[in-house]
Structures are given as structure tokens and as C-alpha cells.
Amino acid sequence: MTERLITHLRHVDLAVPDHAKQLDFYTNTWGLKAEHTDSGLTFLAAEGSPEQYIVRLRQSADKRVDLVSFGTATAADVDTLAGRLAADGVQLIGEPDTLQTPGGGYGFRFFDNEGRTVEISSDVAVRQHRTIEEGESIPVRLSHVVLNSADPEGTVAFYGKHLGFALSDTLMHPRMGNMMWFLRTNAWHHSMAVARGPHPSLHHASFELRGIDEYMRGTGRLLRQGVEKIWGPGRHRAGNNTFSYFLDPHGNTVEYTTELEVLDEDSWHPHVYDFSDPEVSDQWGTANAMNEFVAQRSFNDPDKGLFVAPPV
Fold first, then answer.
1. Closest CA to 188 of 239, 120, 118, 257
2. What is the superkingdom listed in this entry's lineage (predicted)?
3. Would you say 304 and 65 are in contact if contact means Cβ atoms under 8 Å apart?
4. What is the CATH number of domain 6-122?
């Protein structure tokens, strides 16, 4: 396996037609904090995270995922990854350079096998953050991002070969075969997952809350505010994390979660879970059934940003 130089997930950047409506949702409803704002561009931080921002919102005619960003430990690791990717024929959007985003740093962007923009960076300044208090139902950090793929086997292979992601577990269905692959880049069960879908798009972005009580309070708060719930609350088997999935104003699925499993990587062996078993989807049995409605919403709209680098 490729030497692992990626240390963690940093942020997910979304472009949407109605920036103001999206910003209102992520700050006043979801619980993020707008730290840096320009016309039609906002960087949103989690109060408990040292990352400068975990979500970026950009005004655009097209709804798209602008990019997914991962961190490395050093600038030398950034250069190593850029060199390896280029040597393997992966299309770089630019050579490693100083980043012009909050916190600065050093990094580069490239297109993955299906045309998503991925950013790799190091030396980004740490944001002043705080300990989330008991009862505070706001995100502590960005937990993971799940991507829909029309070629999931190829996408999983790409991230394993080029970026050193390791497979934690797989979900399968007796009629449909393998459907979701959970990939890790540190001891967390997954920082990214790849789902079989009709087109490349965002499946969901997941946000970690302080604990079970805060997770349930957050779920209840969104329900009271009339935010459309897709699936949950429940607890998955793979990753052992809780889940409550909601739709943001532009139809992206976002998740509140907590207690994602931390693995002993030296002894871990991947499982294949059959998600036609209700306990695989939800150990508690409290969530609504995983059905066509839930699946359709998770497919999202086809991403309009493939092989087109975001302007910022």
C-alpha cells in the first residue's frame, strides 16, 4: 500500500445558487460560525475545531462540490504527493504554492479519477478554538465526507493507490453487490466513504457533536425548526456512529453524528456488512427504514463541477 502522508480531513467547499440562504442555514440552524466573508464567499468554522474552516460556501450559478481538502504534516509531504500524482499521470490543477485562503499554508489541487477537485495542504495556521460545553448542540468538527461515484471500485482504488487511504469496512446488498466503502486516513473509522450512485455527487457531509446528549439535542432542535429529516436518529454498525441526516436548502444531505469508532489499526481487519440486515443500518431500530426515498435523496443532483476547477 502507498505510504500514508494524508493526516486528516480539513474541509468541504460547496457552491450554490443562493449563498445567502445557505449561509443562514449553516450559521443560524446548523451551528457553524462565519469567520471570513467576502461577496458571495464565506468560510465557516466549527467552534471546537482547530481548522480555520470546515465548510466554504460560494455563490455560483451551478450547484457543485468545489473541493474536498485533506491535510498533511509537512510541506515536504505536500511536494511528495504532488510529485507522485504527476508522475502517475494524475492531472494537477496547479503546482504546490502558498495558499490564498484563511490561515494560509502550502498546498495544491488536482482532479481525482472522476473529476472532483481535491486539495492537499500543510502549515495552515491553527484557529483559536474552544471546548464545546455540555449541552451545546453545535458541531465540534467535520467528521467525514461521503461521495457518490458512478465507478466506486475505481474511485476506492484511486484513493488507495495515490493517497494511501485504507479500507475499514464495506457495505453490501445481496441483490446489488457492494454499495459503500469506508476509507480512513488516521485511526478514525472513516474520513471519507465512497457510495455507488448514478453519478458523481456529494452523498453527505457529516459533523461530529460533543456526545450523545448533544447529538440528540441537535437532532431535536432541527426537527423543531422544520428542517427536513431524511434518515435517523439511529446508530450504524460500520463505524458504530450515530446518525441523523437532514437536507440543507440546496438539497445536500448533512449529518449530525457522534462516537465514530477509533480503530486499533494494527489489528483491524475490514468487515463486509449486509445492509439488508436492519441492524447493520441501525443498531437501535429507532430510525425510519432505509428505503427508496432515503436513497434517492442521498444521490443528490449530478455534480456540475467535474474537471472544472473552482475559480477560488
1. 239
2. Bacteria
3. no
4. 3.10.180.10
Q: Which of 295, 300, 226, 213 is nearest to 256 (CA)?
A: 213
Q: Burial level of 292, CB count in 10 A (0-12/13-18/19+)?
A: exposed
Note if the bond before 198 is cis, omega within 30 degrees: no
Tell me: domain 141-299, CATH 3.10.180.10, correct?
Answer: yes
- Single out the residue of 188, 107, 106, 185 nearest to residue 141, CA to CA: 188
In whole angstroms, give the CA distance from residue 249 to residue 241: 25
Query: Which residues lie across from 208 on neighbouring strands?
Result: 141, 257
The residue count for the chain: 312
Domain ranges of the chain: 6-122, 141-299
H or E segment and range at residue 245: strand 242-247
Domains 6-122 and 141-299 share a fold: yes
Cell numbers 461530529: residue: 208
Q: Phi/psi class of residue 89: alpha, beta or left (left: φ > 0; alpha: ψ in -120 to 50)?
A: left
Q: Which residues pair with 188 in a beta bridge?
A: 262
> 54: helix, coil or strand?
coil
Angle 250-256-261 (CA atoms, 0-180°, nearest 5)? 135
Helix residue spans in the chain (DSSP H) = 19-24, 75-87, 152-163, 212-224, 278-281, 292-299
Measure the N-to-C terminal CA separation of the chain; round to a whole number of Å: 33
pLDDT tens by residue, the chain, 312 residues: 578 999 999 999 999 999 999 999 999 999 999 998 888 999 999 999 999 999 999 999 999 999 999 999 999 999 999 999 999 999 999 999 999 999 999 999 999 999 999 999 999 999 999 999 999 999 999 999 999 999 999 999 999 999 999 999 999 999 999 999 999 999 999 999 999 999 999 999 999 999 999 999 999 999 999 999 999 999 999 999 999 999 999 999 999 999 999 999 999 999 999 999 999 999 999 999 888 888 899 999 999 999 999 999
